[in-house]
Design goal:
Structural class: mainly beta
Number of domains: 1
Helix content: under 10%
Number of helices: 0
Order of helices and strands: EEEEEEE
Strand order of the largest sheet: 3-2-6-5-4-1-7
Strand content: 35-45%
Distance between the termini: 13 Å
Oligomer: single chain
Shape: globular
């Protein structure tokens, strides 16, 4: 699935850790983002990784772990 900047997304499954999108990325605990929380795609870093802004920070997340707000 491809995402565009501005899309609303949420996590499909809990992740073992989150990687911050800071200039020097750090691994963060997974409980900063819940499965019910929606975030905004703010950058596309590569074909399979996007930067998502959630309530408690911005993280680099592989697209396979994300789902769009609009479910078919």
């Amino acid at each position: 699935m491809s995402f565009s900047i501005g899309d609303k997304v949420s996590l499909k499954v809990p992740l073992p850790y989150l990687k911050s999108s800071d200039p020097m990325p750090m691994l963060r605990p997974p409980d900063l983002v819940s499965l019910e929380e929606f975030g905004d795609v703010i950058a596309i870093k590569s074909f399979d990784v996007v930067e998502v802004r959630f309530r408690r920070g911005s993280f680099l997340i592989p697209t396979v772990h994300l789902q769009s707000e609009l479910k078919s």
